[in-house]
Protein: Polypeptide N-acetylgalactosaminyltransferase
Organism: Varroa destructor
Amino acid sequence: WPKSTVCRESVCFGVVLGGCNCPIGCLRRWSRARSSGGKLRRPRGRLLAVGVLWTAATLSIYLVASLHRDATGSVVHDEWTSRYIGKRPPGPDPYAAHKFNQAASDEAAIGRPIPDTRHPHCLALHNSYDTAHLPQTSVIIAFHNEARSALLRTVVSVLRRSPAHLLKEIILVDDASDDPEDGLEIQQRFDKVSVIRNHQREGLVRSRVLGAERASAPVLTFLDSHCECNSGWLEPLLSRIREDPTRVACPVIDVLSMETFAYFPASSDLRGGFDWNLVFKWEFLTRKPDSPTDSILTPAMAGGLFAITRSEFRRLGTYDTQMDVWGAENLEMSFRVWQCGGTIEIVPCSRVGHVFRKQHPYTFPGGSGKVFARNTRRAAEVWMDEYKRHYYEQVPAAKGVPYGDISARLKLREQLRCNNFAWYLKNVYPELKLPENVHGYIKQGNRCLDTLGSVSDDASVHLYPCHYQGGNQDFRITKHNQIMVHDWCLSVDNSSVGQLVLLRSCRGDESQKWMREGGKIRHGAYTELCLTNNNMSAVADRCAGLDSQIWLTKD
């Protein structure tokens, strides 16, 4: 795979076997001559010398190979790799530059063996792919000031774990990184890699469109710049697209630890969805597939990793290039694909690792909140019809963020004769329930119940100064006596006094029932417990008429 020759396991093994030919051949010639009565003197000195040389060569090859391997048997950095990565070492805080542990990334071997996280049935299916007739792909990777080791790991994993005849090219789109050599040095090292460099920051969306315009293969595969492709990752995606060119095929996204860069499998029983804040989320399947190799239709895709035919990408209008930097482009494309005649699916036999970070490593012009709100408004205004009001009810502050001219995108929707959002909710995402009943807040004094941005199973709830902007403080009381925030319900596990009130997926069972009694909010099943403010955390404590148990609800 590199332009220069390197000692790979198969090459070294072949040389060792080749070294056997001379001594074995000498012995065979001596044996044949003796059996035929020929007068051939035993070449003892020659055999001894050859044997010594052969043994020395074998040992030297083994030692050279061992120098390229670490204790786990994975290939460690060669001279070029060490030089490339070492040009930008981590500082005193290895998390500062990239919001993941750069030191761990730099130390993790490039091209290392990783666990094959596919289901065993995928291994049997893998041999059935008609790879001779699968379409070629161009892999497009946009990056901005990416850690060199993470970028190189992504590229090398694509090269090593993709059939050579299916991988047409890798296009790196350098979105105005500080050092132009980040991509250029990789281009010089590997034949199939080319680099496009933006002279000014364009963001993920426009960078990917530039890469797609340069691509020459019939299938476009988009990857983030901090990935690690697993064995057999490409063939399942191309196979599904070959069967139906209107499909968008996504791999299961495994986890590269942001702390250690260890590779962990993700569940294949997940699909993509979102809440009315228009924030992407993973959700468990309501019904498991018949086979662990069956593809999973998903209402939304994460957006970082997917494959699509070049013709379909163009037909659908590529990306909304008026979106800035990053954010909401995945939901916009999800709506557009589904509403305009395509499908999106997760292919469980395709696995790619990805670093999930808790913070963005780069800045957003005007701030990340405004950029995300602008992008999200563009998606809502073009694709969601009257249902966009539910987004604005959840995020009222977004109304003050200009979203620009959307006339071209509305015209595209009309030209493609796309379905409306009601069709999408009915046919693609019927599980997304419309917000119901009461919207408002639950407060004591000037402090409101607030998720503080942590909205997931077992997240706790706190009190925070009321801002009356909805969002994390937009709690609603349903007709089923559930207290909901987004798609989560306040829950208690048992009758224990003083336990934290936690967010859980809304199930409608007794652990999530609450009753308003005057100013108190009493639990429906454990009626001796009331919602209580304990040092700015919401707990379920024994009802005692305390001030900390008196709440004002805004309906």
